[in-house]
């Protein structure tokens, strides 16, 4: 039986590994090769141009502008989403106070979790179309609400003004993702003994102190995973931005994924688009490794 273990493992593992290599690894390898050509996507004819596409990226102001927008998302999206998710999860799970300093969740917390999680059940395209209508300068819900309360001066062309478009899209990205992390952090908090929170309440610790000194250290592994996932999302952002703004106005919401799409399907420069994709592959990989290293800390155990 012991000698027959390895053939049995190979019989189960080799077919899925072969499929993964063919459908996942192989396209990645092909993109590296295409990045070295001037292929236009339709014609089978192409020329090998070496690193010319990568040299062109270095001087492409549109790519650098898109990368800068991605970097802003990389900083702001995880920070805002995790901070808001932790705050809401704390309020829902340990934000209430019962008799004799008993720590409980707020009343109706289960309903609130469903409401917060609801955007996760919508596809990205639906979220984009929905919020594009909310931001509509004439009939949108946001401007209509501002006018209804006498704040006409605050009504803006949210997605048509370069000064506001990026922040409007960022707000939608936070709204669309924060519910998932409220539920994720809430589930992680269930493993923390209530005695710890009750002891903090007896010592007179405020909710903010409890969040910073107790919840964050005990949930650090979960926060680290959330940060990596949101960082990857921030380096993408293609689908939502493509639906809402298509990178405008004046490229104020352009991101590298949309730049790649435009070069490939708009200008039919598949070689150059593949080079952009290769660059983003290494940027995403570097950001992921860096995030894991910077957020790594000694694990805090509780019993």
TrEMBL record:
Residues 67-291 form the ABC transmembrane type-1 domain. The keyword Transport applies. InterPro entries: ABC_transporter_permease (IPR051393), MetI-like (IPR000515), MetI-like_sf (IPR035906). Keywords: Cell membrane, Membrane, Transmembrane, Transmembrane helix, Transport. The keyword Cell membrane applies. Pfam families: BPD_transp_1. This is Sugar ABC transporter permease. It comes from Catellatospora methionotrophica.
